[in-house]
Predict the structure of 10 kDa heat shock protein, mitochondrial.
Amino acid sequence: LAFRKFLPLFDRVLVEKFVAETVTKGGIMLPEKSQGKVLQATVVAVGPGSVNQKGALQPVSVKVGEKVLLPEYGGTKVILDDKDYFLFRDADILGKYVE
C-alpha cells in the first residue's frame, strides 16, 4: 500500500477522504458543483507526535483506521500511487467518530 512508503512527521496525520456522493438515492447524477465537500476521512498514517514545552513527546490524538471529521479548508494534498491523500496537523482535525 502506498502510505506504507510515506511516514508523516511530527504531529501530522495522513488521511484518505471518503468518496463524494455522485448519485442521489433516486438515481439522479449530481454535478460536481452540487456535491457536498467531503469532510470525513479515514486515518491511514500518523506521525510520532510533537514535543511539548517540557520536552516530552505529545502523541497524536488519532490512530490509523479511525474515521475523522476534517475542516472545510486546509490540508496538503499528497498523491501516492495515483490516489489522493491529505496531510493535516493533529490540532486541525475537528473530531473522530466513535463506533
Remarks:
- Strands lie at 12-17, 40-46, 50-51, 57-58, 67-69, 76-80, 83-89, 95-96.
- Residues 12-96 form a domain with the 10 Kd Chaperonin, Protein Cpn10; Chain O fold (CATH 2.30.33.40).
- The chain has one domain: 12-96.
- The first strand starts at residue 12 and ends at 17.
